[in-house]
């Protein structure tokens, strides 16, 4: 049986892993390669790296990080932040990433998703959506690190993303990000019900129960989290034991 | 020396890193002479079937691969690389493959999410040295939208369950296919690559 995935997320700034809250108050956490190795050994199913500076001068530092991570771990990882062109995608995959995550650039140029899926295959094109509630059961897509409202409906954009050829969707709930009060189950479920590609829920993880809820009630295929793992508030083996006891299929022998 | 055929897009660096960890010498190449001199060949692959077979055609490598296969040299196809070993694929059309193994490739059933993405378990269908130290129900990492759909039963070594039975490890004499990514499948994947390495040493 296909297992639900636990996905630690590493925000990388100038070659270091950092952690912020609601995209602000950024703090230094660790070396990305050391942390990737640690999560790999703990049984993480996949990793996500976001280049949160993504300025041109830091691009090569980040690609070095990607290559060093690929050399050390034998689990899949995706890379996002600052990916705007087919050349960016090609360089990132060649550096050893398995997937690229496209966010703002896809809003500005939806054709990028289509071109990337045709050239590299849907399996490596992840559409990352930052969504925020504007009224009950209505969410809109934000870009530029959550600062700009595009006024595009998040669910409609997810459907469009699948049609364009994205192989997976990461849904980041801005309202709950960093609050540790649980994932946004309504948003995750609303998107999971409308698309036939895997959904990764992101934002709000605080307890093991939150993971179980989003993987069951939220309909997510994978759950992403950062600080609960970075600060060892939740250990991945404990989390997986808890999920297995809640009748969720997870990979436990690595 | 294992020749990894470098015919285009995708992450092949991880495969090389995995082989290096196992102390298996490899090189990325599109050079016929290098491929002919290699002790084994790996055909990796992500992307579309049509693009891949056309890329191999443009590099004039189709006959080379077929000849090396019939000479008995071990060949490992990974993901799309495995699918290319078959006779046909119906991925966005009807395309001829390398024809090294009998069977064809079709889209995964719509009753499940496509792509089949994530960790799934292996069910072993025969005793085979490729499965040495690989437990029944071991998890490996899959990412694909198409799968081998008709095949010879004796070629099926291990399978996964996803919208029906998905051939996961196949073997026809010296031709081996893995539908998942062993280089991305943790310790289990490294063991599978090592088992392949033992076959060629």
TrEMBL record, chain A:
- Identify one Pfam family in the record: His_biosynth
Reaction catalysed by this enzyme = 5-[(5-phospho-1-deoxy-D-ribulos-1-ylimino)methylamino]-1-(5-phospho-beta-D-ribosyl)imidazole-4-carboxamide + L-glutamine = D-erythro-1-(imidazol-4-yl)glycerol 3-phosphate + 5-amino-1-(5-phospho-beta-D-ribosyl)imidazole-4-carboxamide + L-glutamate + H(+)
Keyword Glycosyltransferase present in the record's keywords: the answer is: no
Signal sequence region: none
Q: In which pathway does it act?
A: Amino-acid biosynthesis; L-histidine biosynthesis; L-histidine from 5-phospho-alpha-D-ribose 1-diphosphate: step 5/9
Q: Does the keyword Ubl conjugation apply?
A: no
Transmembrane ranges, per UniProt, are none
E.C. designation(s): 4.3.2.10
Which keywords annotate this record? Answer: Amino-acid biosynthesis, Cytoplasm, Histidine biosynthesis, Lyase
Enumerate the subcellular locations listed in this protein's record, separating them with semicolons: Cytoplasm
User: Which ranges of the sequence are coiled-coil?
Assistant: none
Cross-referenced InterPro entries: Aldolase_TIM, His_biosynth, HisF, IGPS_HisA/HisF, RibuloseP-bd_barrel
- Active site residues according to the UniProt entry: 11, 130
Q: What the protein does?
A: IGPS catalyzes the conversion of PRFAR and glutamine to IGP, AICAR and glutamate. The HisF subunit catalyzes the cyclization activity that produces IGP and AICAR from PRFAR using the ammonia provided by the HisH subunit.
Name the family the entry cites. Answer: Belongs to the HisA/HisF family.
Complex and partners: Heterodimer of HisH and HisF.
PANTHER family noted in UniProt: IMIDAZOLE GLYCEROL PHOSPHATE SYNTHASE HISHF, IMIDAZOLE GLYCEROL PHOSPHATE SYNTHASE SUBUNIT HISF/H IGP SYNTHASE SUBUNIT HISF/H
> Know the name of this protein?
Imidazole glycerol phosphate synthase subunit HisF
Automatic annotation (TrEMBL), chain B:
Q: Pfam families annotated for this entry?
A: GATase
InterPro entries per record: Class_I_gatase-like, GATASE, Imidazole-glycPsynth_HisH
Q: What is this protein called?
A: Imidazole glycerol phosphate synthase subunit HisH
Q: Name one GO biological process term.
A: L-histidine biosynthetic process
Keywords, A to Z, come to:
Amino-acid biosynthesis, Cytoplasm, Glutamine amidotransferase, Histidine biosynthesis, Hydrolase, Lyase, Transferase
User: Subunit structure of this entry?
Assistant: Heterodimer of HisH and HisF.
Main location per the UniProt record: cytoplasm
Q: In which pathway does it act?
A: Amino-acid biosynthesis; L-histidine biosynthesis; L-histidine from 5-phospho-alpha-D-ribose 1-diphosphate: step 5/9
Q: Which domain of life is it from?
A: Bacteria
One GO term describing the cellular component: cytoplasm
Give one GO molecular function term.
Answer: imidazoleglycerol-phosphate synthase activity
- Positions of the catalytic residues: 79, 181, 183
Q: Where is the Glutamine amidotransferase domain?
A: 4-196
Give the source species.
Virgibacillus salinus
Which catalytic reaction applies to this protein?
5-[(5-phospho-1-deoxy-D-ribulos-1-ylimino)methylamino]-1-(5-phospho-beta-D-ribosyl)imidazole-4-carboxamide + L-glutamine = D-erythro-1-(imidazol-4-yl)glycerol 3-phosphate + 5-amino-1-(5-phospho-beta-D-ribosyl)imidazole-4-carboxamide + L-glutamate + H(+); L-glutamine + H2O = L-glutamate + NH4(+)
What is this protein for, i.e. what is its function?
IGPS catalyzes the conversion of PRFAR and glutamine to IGP, AICAR and glutamate. The HisH subunit catalyzes the hydrolysis of glutamine to glutamate and ammonia as part of the synthesis of IGP and AICAR. The resulting ammonia molecule is channeled to the active site of HisF.
| Location of this chain's protein in the cell | Cytoplasm
Q: What is its EC number?
A: 4.3.2.10, 3.5.1.2
